[in-house]
Amino acid sequence: MSLPASESDSLASRRSKKPKYSKFTQQELPACKPLLTPGIVIGAFSLIGVIFVPIGLASLAASQNIVELIDRYDAECVSANDKVGFIQDTKTDKACTRKITVPKPMKGPIHIYYQLENFYQNHRRYVKSRNDKQLLYKDAASTITNCEPEATSEDGGAPIVPCGLIAWSLFNDTYSFSLNKKAVEVNKKNIAWDSDKNKKFGSDVFPSNFQKGGLIGGAKLNEKIPLSEQEDLIVWMRTAALPTFRKLYGRIESDIMASDEITVVIQNNYNTYSFGGTKALVLSTTSWIGGRNNFIGVAYVAIGGICLFLAMGFVILYVIKPRALGDPNYLSWNKENPDHPN
To answer: In sequence order, what are the residues at sequence separation of 6 or more whose Cβ sits closer than 8 angstroms to the Cβ of residue 214?
Structure first.
């Protein structure tokens, strides 16, 4: 028994997945469809090259004008053969004096960094070993999820604030500077991101039970200062993506002339010897591109140079062996399509 024609057509239309006609479903909305003629291609490559090459050269010039002094001190500041034993001995004086001669004038502010190598802050277990709620909210002091093995104190099981391996391993080398035998003040204010200070660390959260166990990982914190004002901790807890990294220690606001001698007294406390890491002190000026970084300039010059080379190649190819263009009126989108309903 067959269905009437009207019912069959209705059933077929319900089963059909063909969308109702519209310019959107049929991709007939107005669109820009440029023709890549030789003139447009050559002009585009030439424009990119003309813009990118000067930017790259300016970036390289700014980077080369930056004065950067790097002094690695981890090997020279240990007087014993047993380096791990030396650094773990709390009774040993670990003061180390270093002298740095400035080759070029350094205009303030001069940024002071500590540089660590072979320190994997991006290790998954290390990165997770913190509790962001505890860092931000006073009422979440007992929230110690993910903080093992530095979650609670050894004596009474009280929660550690801030908990976790990141805070526990806080860098604790210190530097004091003198310029031509005159003490130089180091400005340690505003070395952390404002977003971190205001949104990740609470102004009413204070350290407690921190670095009071048997094994001390790094620096201690003042329990009378809230976490939002402990900028060394905030800088350290923004974990680095690579095993070699720098973190801002402070700034010298005054200028330093060429041939001046900087004397640095280093308290060599941080244990990088257990894992074969290195430590270095970095003094650097800045420019409009930040610190010294040749990669941006080289990348711009390389891309711009390649584009100019391609533009010249297309010009030569077009002159030697030109190719006639077709009539764009025959393109499918320039034809009227009477096949669809209104």
So the answer is: 154
Q: What are 51-102's pLDDT values in tens digits?
A: 999 999 999 999 999 999 999 999 899 887 888 888 888 888 889 999 999 9
Residue 218's alpha-carbon distances to 47, 213, 215, 221, in angstroms, are 53, 12, 9, 10
Residue 324 in tokens: 């006639």
Residues 102/257, Cβ–Cβ less than 8 Å = yes
Pairing of strands 95-101, 261-267: antiparallel
Check: CB of residue 273 under 8 Å from CB of residue 119: no
pLDDT tens-digit map of 135-144 = 999 998 889 8
The C-alpha torsion from 60 through 62 and 64 to 66, rounded to 10°, is: -150
Closest CA to 292 of 104, 109, 62, 110: 62
